[in-house]
Amino acid sequence: MAAEESRYLLGxxxxxxxxxxxxxxxxxxxxxxxxGPLSFGFVLGYSSPVIPELRNIDDPELxxxxxxxxxxxxxxxxxxxxxxxxGGYLVDKVGRKxxxxxxxxPYVFGYIVIISAQNVWxxxxxxxxxxLASGITSLVVPVYISEVSHPKVRGMLGSCVQLMVVTGIxxxxxxxxxxxxxxxxxxxxxxxxxxxxxxxxxxxxxxxxLNRNKRSEAIASLRFxxxxxxxxxxxxxxxxxxxxxxxxxxxxxxxxxxxxxLLIGVALMFFQQVTGINAVMFYAETIFEDANFKDSRxxxxxxxxxxxxxxxxAALIIDKTGRKVLLYISGIIMALSxxxxxxxxxxxxxxxxxxxxxxxxxxxxxxxxxxxxxxSWLAVVSLGLFVAGFALxxxxxxxxxxxxxxxxxxxxxxxxxxVLTNWIMAFLVTKEFHDFIGFLTxxxxxxxxxxxxxxxxxxxxxxxxxxxxxxxxxxxxxxxxS
Length: 482
Prior knowledge:
By secondary structure, the protein is mostly helical.
């Protein structure tokens, strides 16, 4: 029965005499690739434990003021936006495997610059380099995994990208409790070195090899990934049917099979960031302190653990539930939790409109006496709900979907556009959040996020295709027919 099911999900006819596909080496290739997102997670998590240390460091050349600390955190997003553009070029020119191996260079070099930093500008440069590597990683790894996987496990393996990102963030939080900032940078450089070593033994994706007319190498890649007992020739022919040798011309952007998935992908990246994830995480430490969690580092570990837990749940169930169901559930949970956040701030800071200085409420010092403590549970519940909801759907699923919906010839440039959109929006939301609060008030800002979460659900219902159980070639054919 298992053999028949595996053959069916790979598209093989029921009468096929081949036993079932073997996934062990596919899982090994995925593990090697997701060491990239693990490195990416360490980059994102690094600033949280390090900024407080650098703000109080004895060396005046390295000491960060509040503005410098903000740039230290957000420069990664600008580097990642540039990495998205570079990754879109590399992934089509040198291949998925080599792009992944190359991105370990700016990871390691960036951490070397941080470790040897003598002034703030060296810290900035190191963060930009690690951000650049993160941008390349966030583009290349989902493409690599989607192209080496088969439909039965593609959702689970694709969700491992986000799982390893949040695992890296949690790892940086935990290690930051005991390690000094330079030693933490040494630790953060390890996953990318291991990725470089492991990826050197992994195959290039069959799709890329066939696009380069390297058929014998594509067969060898499939034999490595599927085991010896499936019809490699059959799968090779299925991929070849969708491979078009010519590159992407600008005139082809008018083609619905190119522009429709591109618009869906860009919109998914936009909506992922305007859910308010960065804003909510910005408040996390203050909210836990209000609820008598005096050690903000422990609070960060709690938030990171929630992310890892629910991203793991998403990875385990996504191939059964489908992508859209998780986006619906996630969007509804986030809409509810951000609405509750707005209610919390409305109750705690009833006279905020009369305050000319957003910083007064920003640190929650202007709260009505007694009110803050009595309803701090509402903020903690809202925070837990929001982080769990994001991790369950809008965290991992957009990255998975953009790795599935683009036609092969447009995969590099379309993925680059999506990654660029994601990181530019992340930068804007992070840097301009304070101004939003001053303009809309705290509760108004969170209610705006709630409205965006409702829009997410509506957009998913009308425009996002369900890709569960379909091959990449079937998904491409769906857009071509439309």
